[in-house]
Write a structure and sequence with these properties.
Radius of gyration: 24 Å
Number of domains: 3
Structural class: alpha/beta
CATH class of the largest domain: Alpha Beta
CATH architecture of the largest domain: 3-Layer(aba) Sandwich
Oligomer: single chain
Strand content: 5-15%
Number of helices: 15
Shape: globular
Distance between the termini: 101 Å
Length: 367
Amino acid sequence: MKNKKMFLILAALLIIAAVICIIIFSGGQKPVTPAEDATSEGKVLNVYNWGEYIDKDVLTSFEKQYGATVNYSLFSSNEEMYTKLLSGASYDVIVPSDYMIERLLNEKKLQPLNKDIIGSLDGLADGVRNLSYDPDNTYSVPYLWQTVGIVYDKTRIDPQKMEEKGWDIFLDPEYDGQVFMYDSERDSFMVAFKALGYSANTENAEEIQAAYNWLREMDKTVHPAYVTDEVIDAMANGEKWLALVYSGDAAYILSENENMAYCAPKQGTNIAVDAMVIPANAANPKLANTFIRYISEYDNSLMISREVGYASPNAKVLEALSGPEGDYEGNDAYIPRAGYEKDEMFHDNEVLRKELSELWIKVKLHE
């Protein structure tokens, strides 16, 4: 009997020691398995994201690991996505831009993230930390980020001239017929605002009128072609000398055409962050949090950023892709600049958006 008690005590001590070892070697946290992390078998996760903005292998591996099906839908603008949400559509994860997240938060259309599932965000790059619309990442986790700049043919345009003129290069008659301008009122007015020394979020009527006049002069001087995503292949093929381009698309263009270079003018530009959020009416919030954590992990963030050319919010991924032997080594468009005081994020302002939209139509109609 005494030996039996001694055996039980020793067995208990061994079990306790084993548990302590597990805790120590797991950093003080209980290991989380897919089954514990989310009851996902057979569930459908509805994700709404921009087009051409993910490596599909990441979705496949998520489905395999968690036994879930990802229903992956695409939108082409923040406004399209917003209209879909207003119609009552239910998604588990959406990926809006910064100013749209502001709007969704103000209208209480998002739910807080589960930080126990999401885990630490200490690995975020400096440029996507403490963002004004959600400084503590209570509701959002950055997905990809970018600047807006100019892709130009350095065999046709001297890089020094490009740096000196900045946005005003679009007013140079030497480039008549050689310009692509992105067909976006907010981005195009940003160019004019920054060229004139104004905020990209100005509500001043005189400054808005001055920017409109600047864009009219641009239209009459260089007769730009107004484009959207077709600018990517067009500039990769060297069809024109100058184009307003998002940095992620610029990174691809530079990788395809060695004659092309990228400039984010010193007058300032837009810094844009697209982030993962969970709508208030999400059907599977627990699985949604798991998906957000999964996308944010190093290997998956690396695959996505490598595939699409937009900058990862993960500092180590940025270093790996832009460093020695990285896919974007020496590519000036890949890493958005951070900490430049004249750069800004767009803020949600429906009145300004509508006014710029109406003026932009007049610019394109040559009025």
